[in-house]
Specification:
The protein is 40% helix and 16% strand. Strands 3-9-10-7-8-6 form a 6-stranded antiparallel sheet. The protein is an alpha+beta fold. It folds into 2 domains: 201 residues, no CATH class; 151 residues, no CATH class. The protein is flat.
Length: 364
C-alpha cells in the first residue's frame, strides 16, 4: 500500500507494511457506493445525497500524500528508531532524509483505506508505527477535498477480515458528528488489496479440521484450518511475493522498510522469519510461509487468527452452524447440506478483500 517515489523515477515496488500494503497492488478505482439514509436527531429523515456527493467526490479525485518514516506516533515511537529497522548498507543517518519520505497516491478514499491497513492491530498491538503519520497525512488530503462544501465531514475507513475480528485496522478523517446533528451518511466498499478467501474452501477446511482433531496433526479444531487460509490471504495482501522480492533485493529504503514490516508483524505473530528476509538470498515466498505458519502451530499469523475466531462472534456462528447438524458421521445428503450451510455462513462473515468507507456530513 505504500508507493516509494524514487528521485526522478517510477514508484519502486515493495510494501511498507507499516503502512501495511503492498506496492505491487496499486490502488484500485472505487467500488460501488451504497448510500445509507441516516435520520436527524429528532427522527426526521435528512438528505442522504449530501454524504453521497461527498463520497463520490472523494472516490473520483486523486490525491498525493507524502509522509515521513521518522515522524513520532501518538505514543512517541519512531519507526526508524526501532532496533528492527536497519539503514540501507553504506548509508549514513545524515543521508537518509529524502529516502525516509514516502509518497503514495490514489483516490482519496483509497489513500485513507491504505492508512487503515497501515494502522493494523493484532489484539491490542499496533505493529506498524508509521501508520499514524500516514493517517494524519491522508486525513489532511481527504478534508482538503471537501473544503468549501459548507458541511462538516467525518470519514472512516475500516478493514476487518471477518466480523468481530481483533485483527484489522481503521483510519479516520475529521471529527465525529455530535449526537444532535442532522447526519447524512453513505457507505462505500473499496478493494483492500488482500485476496478474497473462497467460502467453499473455508467450509471444506473447517470440516477437515474438525475431523482431524483426533490424529497427530496438532490441529485442535476447524478454526486451525480456517485460520491458515485467512492468514495466508492476509500475508499475501501485505507482502505480494513479486514486488516484495524486488524490495528485499533492493539496496534502497524499500528494503529497510519491508524488512521492518516483516519483523514487526513477525513479532506480533510470534513467528521466526529473519533467515528469509536477511542475508544475500532473501526469499519472499519462504518468508510469507513462515509468517503464516501451519494449521495447528502455536506460532504464526494462522494461530493468531484461529485463536481469535475461536473466541469471537464469527467463530460462534460458524460453530453453531456446524453443530446444528448433530455429532458423528452424516449421510451424504446431510453432509452436503452442512457444507452448504457453512459456505453460506463464511460468505456472509468473511471479507478479506474489501475496506468499508463511511462518509458522514452535517451542517455545523
Amino acid at each position: 500500500m505504500v508507493n516509494f517515489e524514487r528521485p526522478g523515477g517510477r514508484p519502486a515496488a515493495g510494501r511498507a507494511i507499516s503502512t501495511a500494503v503492498d506496492v505491487a497492488l496499486a490502488l484500485v478505482i472505487v467500488g460501488a457506493a451504497a448510500a445509507v439514509l441516516a435520520t436527524a436527531g429528532g427522527g426526521e429523515p435528512v438528505d442522504a445525497d449530501r454524504a453521497d456527493r461527498a463520497a463520490e467526490s472523494l472516490a473520483g479525485t486523486t490525491v498525493t500524500v507524502t509522509y515521513d518514516l521518522r515522524a513520532e506516533d501518538e505514543d512517541g515511537r519512531v519507526a526508524t528508531d526501532d532496533p528492527v529497522y536497519e539503514l540501507p548498507a553504506g548509508m549514513e543517518p545524515a543521508e537518509t532524509g529524502a529516502h525516509h519520505r514516502i509518497t503514495t497516491y490514489g483516490p482519496a478514499t483509497h489513500v485513507l483505506g491504505e492508512a487503515a491497513l497501515a494502522n493494523l492491530r493484532i489484539g491490542g498491538e499496533r505493529p506498524f508505527v508509521y501508520g499514524h503519520e500516514l493517517e494524519r497525512s491522508a486525513e489532511a488530503a481527504v478534508l482538503g477535498r471537501l473544503v468549501g462544501s459548507g458541511e462538516r465531514p467525518y470519514v472512516v475507513a475500516s478493514w476487518r477480515p471477518y466480523e468481530g475480528a481483533s485483527l484489522g485496522g481503521t483510519a479516520t478523517a475529521g471529527e465525529h458528528p455530535p449526537r444532535t446533528a442532522d447526519v447524512s451518511s453513505a457507505t462505500t466498499t473499496i478493494d483492500s488489496g488482500v485476496p478474497p478467501v473462497d467460502a467453499g474452501t473455508l467450509a471444506e477446511r473447517f470440516i477437515e479440521g474438525e475431523e482431524r482433531t483426533t490424529d497427530r496433526s496438532g490441529i485442535e479444531d476447524g478454526f486451525d484450518a480456517v485460520g491458515e487460509e485467512i492468514a495466508a490471504a492476509t500475508v499475501e495482501g501485505y507482502f505480494a511475493p513479486e514486488p516484495t522480492q524486488y524490495a528485499l533485493e533492493s539496496t534502497l529504503t524499500e528494503r529497510a522498510v519491508v524488512v521492518y514490516d516483516y519483523r514487526r508483524l513477525a513479532d506480533a505473530a510470534d513467528a521466526d522469519l529473519d533467515g528469509h528476509v536477511t542475508g544475500s538470498t532473501p526469499d519472499a515466498v519462504e518468508a510469507n510461509a513462515a509468517l503464516v505458519g501451519d494449521a495447528g502451530d502455536d506460532a504464526g499469523l494462522a494461530a493468531v487468527v484461529a485463536g481469535d475466531l475461536r473466541t469471537g462472534e464469527t467463530g460462534e456462528e460458524i460453530r453453531e452452524t456446524y453443530e446444528s447438524f448433530g455429532d458423528g458421521p452424516l449421510p451424504p445428503d446431510a453432509e452436503a447440506e452442512r457444507r452448504a450451510a457453512l459456505e453460506a455462513a463464511f460468505e456472509e462473515l468473511v471479507s478479506t478483500e474489501t475496506i468499508d468507507v463511511t462518509v458522514q456530513t452535517w451542517e455545523p
